Fold each of these.
Amino acid sequence: MDRPGRGILACIPGAARPASGGGLSEGPLSRECRLLIDGVPLCRVRVARTPWLRLRGWVGYRPDPDESLWLEPCMAVHTFGMVVPIDVAFVDGRGRVLRVVSGMRPFRLAACPGAAAAVEFPAGYASRITEGSVLEVARDDNAV
């Protein structure tokens, strides 16, 4: 199993490189990686590790209901230009949830000093995530 909070790099070789066209990585990340909460599968996960991809995030994009976005490094997020509310979990370097922000509407800011990453979810996921839980990324062996 991958290290909590850092597994995204081991999940797909080259995951830190942006997709052609500068958008979020498609394909292997969205099909082969799952986000786990305390070892239980929660949803699919994408990654944004470059400054541009972290800044852009889900701006102008409607995420699938079973999709999350891992932003690393990240201790603050914005929803400027977003079209739907989101939930955000800030995690430390080991994937432990430090703070959960529920129903963050467009044109808002949220931060968590000391966070190593932020995970964005479609609104409604916050009810499944509690402070102290551990989020980690694992390869989805059932992917096609």
Note: The domain at 7-16+28-139 is CATH 2.60.120.1140 (Jelly Rolls).
Amino acid sequence: MLGLTASRAVARHAVLQRLPTFASPLRSLNFPRLLIHRAPPCRAFCATAVLGNAAKVAKVAGEAAATGAASTKTIAGQLVTAGYETQVGLWLLGTSAMLYSMVAIGGYTRLSGSGLSMTDWKIQGRRLPWGEAEWVKEFEEYKLFPEYQLLNKGMMDLSDFKRIYFVEWFHRMWGRSVGVLFAVPLAYFSFRRVVKTPLAIRLGALFALGMSQGFIGWWMVKSGLENPETHTPTLGPNQRPRVSPYRLAAHWSAALTLYIGTVYTALSLLRPSPSVLNPTAQAISAAKRLRLGALPVTALVILTLFSGPFVAGNDAGHAFNTWPKMNYDWVPQEWSTAVAAPLARWRLFFEDTAVVQFNHRSLAYTSVASALALFAYSTTLPLSPAARSAVYLLPCGVALQTCLGIATLLLYVPIELGVAHQAGGVGVLTTLAYLLHTLRTPMVVL
């Protein structure tokens, strides 16, 4: 018996001596000596195989982690010189915040009746009137135009005029300040060759669009200094002086394009690459499916936002201040009349008070329903944590905007709520832009 035990020990020793590459990993991992020296040869081989596979997995995981870390800057590396991603991204994010505030200030300017107080425009801007004589001169200029003659004649004094003039002046100068704070860093980064060609082209286009906003804004204001029936003939004579809703929509659309373009570019520099946000094949598949549904939802929200200027430009928010019905009707008769002959009566869709408000309501309902349906669909998908967090912002933003819209209507469009509702719409669009950016997927899956 003792001889048999000794022979087995010799055999085990021989096996371990012949397989040093298997034994050494076990010793390096401080496994119990019993497992190493007393296990039968077959168990030693099994343990060795497991450890070998584990080493291979660890190696692959390490390489994947290194690849992921490198790919974090892959997208940004195509846009800026390495090391400047955060600087350029924060600059663009700050510009986005200023553009957002510009939208809110524009809403306040319109709702406070200040937008037509300045009757000329200079590209370089101008200082505020200095002294009583200069203020009187500006006031006398304002008196020559329809807004004063039809609405404010005999009801406005110089102090009232100073208030609305300052609001419009501040709106214009804030826009110029945004332009300077965009142009100067862009020139600096371009001179330092920080910005690469693809990003330079994109930022150049955004800067050109921002410059054009000054001209579009004056083109819009100029329409309010003319007889209103020139721009909205279906409303007949003796209309309330206001800017053309068509030009207001053009100004609004350019502002949204400029804002979203800046936000999306900032996100591309500050956030990880798609391979990091959606790291697995399962997450990539889910992101693609959700993105396919998010695109039409975004289009609906944009269309809803585009209908807003026609409500604002026609003062349609000051009529039918009931909800959910429009006075006593679910569908106003004016809308049925317009739909009966859409080609002949196409202007009614953009100028008639009842029609434009019903269109805006209908688009808002559709946007809310589609956004909530998209969120419900997302709960069935194996999304990555980043995508899951992004999609959870959507119902929150939509719910807040819905409440703001209803309250604004029922309370007859108070200035504060009107501004909040306009800013809330941009907030919902920002949420969708953030979601779409998160749902980007790698071009190649390894």
Note: The two ends are 58 Å apart (CA to CA).
Amino acid sequence: MRNAQRMNAATTADIFPEACTTVASVVGGAAGADLESTTPCTDFSLRALLSHFTGTTGAFAKAGKTHELDAEDPWGSTVQLDESDWPETLAGNLDAIAVRWSQPETWHRAIRGSKLPAQALGELALIEVLLHGWDIAQTTGQQIKVSDVLGAELYRCVAQTAEQGREFHVYGPEVAVADVASDFDKALGLAGRDPAWHR
């Protein structure tokens, strides 16, 4: 994997603020978009994607702050999109994730209600933030720019979850990308997304 040596000096916690700030900018740029737009997520309109993303980012924010998942709705699957202020809600969730998951101690505390250790949960949070950030960017005609280090870390996290992700239909079939593609594009392909997708 490219940039592997550089990743030795950068933990997932260190780069969470970059990931969340990048995606928050995309969210802000998507305000006013047609919520019926098709997205790279199969069978998800933009409205459905934003509802899902609001729920999951809220869950990851709560896990980072309280070290527990909601017993009744651990992944925010019942969250309904508030069309009047979803950009602000999502931006707030992303800010909370950046603050909490950038603290190393968060990665070493048990998360009540989760079968996964905090390390695995944090890596899933990074995947969720960046992949759905890309989905929103593509849907709304924006570009998402990540550093080489962040792209390499996303690729590492997706690669180690790819087989299980496909088993549980979280990822789609792998999309082949060029050997010279960026690590970010390779991560997209591993997660079943076509980096060249457009509406």
Note: Residues 10-146 form a domain with the Four Helix Bundle (Hemerythrin (Met), subunit A) fold (CATH 1.20.120.450).
